[in-house]
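Bench log, entry 3. Co-assembly request; chain sequences pasted below exactly as received.
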Amino acid sequence: MERNITDGALLRLIRGRRSVRRFEGSPVPRQAITRILEAGRLAPSGSNRQPWCYIVIDDPAVKQAFRTECEWAEGVFHRNASVELTAWMKAHGITPQKPFLEEAPYLIAMFYKMREPYAVPSVWISIGFMLLQVEEEGLGTLTYTPAGARLNTILSVPAQFQLAAILPIGIPADHQRQNRRALSETVFTNQFGRPFEEGSGP
Amino acid sequence: MERNITDGALLRLIRGRRSVRRFEGSPVPRQAITRILEAGRLAPSGSNRQPWCYIVIDDPAVKQAFRTECEWAEGVFHRNASVELTAWMKAHGITPQKPFLEEAPYLIAMFYKMREPYAVPSVWISIGFMLLQVEEEGLGTLTYTPAGARLNTILSVPAQFQLAAILPIGIPADHQRQNRRALSETVFTNQFGRPFEEGSGP
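Structure output for the full assembly:
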């Protein structure tokens, strides 16, 4: 890919995307948020059950309640993390503090109905589509999964829904470039371990 | 969205995408497959662990072995399906027969390392990116999840990897349009049940 094959518009978008953990305070057009939600709504799902519910948060009081709850849960998570994960988080500057939950003009909390078929795969495809629409809008986000935080209560979300992730959305104030393994280390042909030939040309 | 807000290129792509269950026999450029794999490779993942392994299948003997194993597993699945699911499958013409596993010029089998953090969310974001790249290439696919099929053995994939899905990829011979719930039934603001206002303008 890096060598012989031409990217299209989507692949350029994917290649340019970065996780963003700090946001400018400046506002974001509501239409951009609507398009991001549309991207998620239109995703395919198991038996087309669309087992998701998205809650857009722009109320500072709700954001503050989110941050308080998430930072409490993060404290527990960090104290119990493996040595390897602790090292990784330290290297990437990840602490229990989550200022982006208040800094981002919008949060989208993504819930799924636990008992629907293929609910977890479905909601994560939908989140994948939204991540790309965020990039298309020239905005930034992070797939934030607050292990153990109890957010249903804050948003009055029924217990049949489980939180998948929170997407804080805003204008990026920084971003982190992360490398990926080469295609040759990720893809095989017909048998595990047998190299994939990329082909060449447009 | 349908009313007041202009789609960009990505949203047009998402809106146009359909699940495809029948494929033309005509060949697909290998570069298109490479770009689809690139889209998956470049996806974000928990702690950037990239807990996936993709196997491209273009060998007719491997495809045939896949089909035999999957149709056996599908037979079991259909016999045990709920009344509701059986009705849905019947209405959508879904039977234990999976001819697309041999008709599609390429299959991509997507595996993930079960023990990596956030392995399931990560592989499904990656699959979401690939679904869109398939559409960008003017090709069709289906997120096929053969419940209970034992495909690791056929591909010599180590037991630490679990199959997430198979994407058959080719030129569409048919497709199915499926409706989605309206945004107003899917999205709320600040509290469950409180309507989201879309905004208007470009």
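The radius of gyration of chain B is 19 Å. Chain B is about 40% helix and 15% strand.
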